[in-house]
Amino acid sequence: MWRMILVASGVWSVLSVSMVLGAEKPNIVLLFIDDLGWHDVGCYGNDFVETPRIDRLAAEGLRFTDFYAAGAVCSPTRCAVQSGQNQARIGITAHIPGHWRPFERVITPMTTMALPLEVKTVAEALGDSGYATGYVGKWHLGNSRSHGPGKQGYQFSAVINGPHLPGRYRVAERPDLKPAAGQYRTDFEADLAVRFIEQNKTRPFFLMVSPYAVHIPLAAMSTKVEKYRRKAGAAGDRHLPHPVYAAMIEHVDDLVGRVVDTIAETGLTARTMIVVTSDNGGLYRRYDYQPQVDPTVTGNGPLRDEKGSLYEGGIRVPLIVKYPPLVPPGSTSATPAISYDFFPTFTDLAGTQLPENQAIDGLSLRPVLEDPSAGLDREAVHFHYPHYHHSRPASAIRSGKWKLIEFLDGTGMELYDLARDMGEKENLASQHPGRTTALRKQLQVWRVAVGARMPLVNPHYDSARAGEWWNRRTAQPLHAAGQLRRPFPRTEKEQSK
Questions:
Q1: From 55's CA, which of 105, 278, 320, 423 has a CA 20 to 30 Å away?
Q2: Under CATH, which number does the domain 25-379 receive?
Q3: How far apart are CA 140 and CA 147, in angstroms?
Q4: What's the pTM value of the predicted model, to 2 decimals?
Q5: How many C-beta atoms surround the C-beta of residue 226 within 10 A?
Q6: Tens of pLDDT along 338-370?
Q7: Is there a contact between 93 and 76 (Cβ–Cβ < 8 Å)?
């Protein structure tokens, strides 16, 4: 295949893609934003939040319209990215350690509490072929030092814990890595990413940057917040997306811009793949919502529902890929793809072998990157979220335009035609019983094949108490009667009061 590409001299010339890719291994930067919804950035239709750097990447690369996070919450998707597997194989099906509703209809399975060390990660696969590997930000695949990214193939590891505002976060076990005074967390994460790129510019590198933004608690620097409060006008904090949340998205856009600028300044643009995506759909509000304390964060329209749900709003997320030698600028693809496709995509472009003794569920996206109208040789993508969170325990399958959701607490199945109903408003299960039965059987066969853990009927089901949330660590209710959480300060000015 032939493509016009920009060479270092600034002159356009025609080169074979295979010649370019064969000359040297591409650098890979994966920007993995926490809780960013499908409709949260400008290039996906948001006209309130200012995301010029992400939008520019979309204009210079490929934007996927039907890309899925492998999980409805963070840890499962992170597991899928690192392993190239659907997380149901490993048992990380909830965020670690997960939630507990002891009086619901079913007992939900425990989640595996860390990514097993015997799983070969994408970082280990790339590192074996000479890549420098780095990780910056949120990990959430095991809290002990024995299961961090430094034990999973990342030669440079900076796991950052704590919320966004200055003084409230730190790098785990790295006292030598400290933010500047008054520095917002996303800016610090950008500093570390820039440092890694500059230190490894003479060799191929893989860098995963995983900011905690835009995860709650809402918190951003006042200058950005005030801008969005003015834009929201009389609606103020009732505006969606929430002005503080909008400011957090802009902070992330700034991070993306700094990474892109550093790659350009080091002369690496033509041989660096930049990937921007999210770990799950956008959040409306906390799962244990308390009206006196919790703001509503955003909306995912036209998609249905939110993070913690297998409706489209919980799992369909942005994906933007820029790689000048391969990807046509300003292109879009409606080919369904999913988070565990990153592993085989990256190893394919790097010329690295996939692990021999590890099932890889993903497919290389290279055919779609070269030709956005191309499809993938895959019958379906599968989802398994057997937990209560923002919805009920469920599994789902998307095959072509059809999507089936099977609720695992005995409350039924739903079938949607996503080609004409991406908002999942019309349940077609009763109108298409044959298709519903066939997809359910296909889903059941897949669950058996991957060893998916299933809920069990709860002998202690109590409809009057079914809505209670309990802490798995303490085996106590999360909130005593009448008890409210203390609101978290949302800007540095509010923090100082």
A1: 423
A2: 3.40.720.10
A3: 10
A4: 0.94
A5: 14
A6: 999 999 999 999 999 999 999 999 999 999 999
A7: yes
> Which run of H or E residues covers position 245?
helix 243-265
Q: Exposed, middle or buried: residue 234 (CB in 10 Å: 0-12, 13-18, 19+)?
A: exposed
Task: Copy the structure tokens of residue 345.
Answer: 């995509």
Angle between helices 243-265 and 185-199 (to 10 degrees): 10
Rounded CA separation 386/453 (Å): 8
Q: Which residue is listed with tokens 């046509």?
A: 328
44-78 pLDDT per residue, tens = 999 999 999 999 999 999 999 999 999 999 999 99
Pairing of strands 132-137, 205-210: parallel
How many angstroms separate the CA atoms of 307 and 310, rounded?
Answer: 8
Q: Integer distance in angstroms from the first to the last C-alpha of the chain?
A: 61
- Name the nearest CA neighbour of 136 among 67, 191, 173: 191
Sheet holding 381-385, edge to edge: 381-385, 394-399, 402-407, 413-417
Running DSSP on this structure, what letter comes out for residue 394?
E
Q: Which residues contact 324 (CB under 8 A, 6 or more apart)?
A: 5, 6, 60, 269, 270
Residue 201, Cβ neighbours under 10 Å: how many?
A: 17
Q: Is the dihedral of CA 170, 171, 176, 178 positive or negative?
A: negative
Name the token pair of 114.
């860390």
At 489 the pLDDT is 78
pLDDT in tens, 188-230: 999 999 999 999 999 999 999 999 999 999 999 999 999 999 9
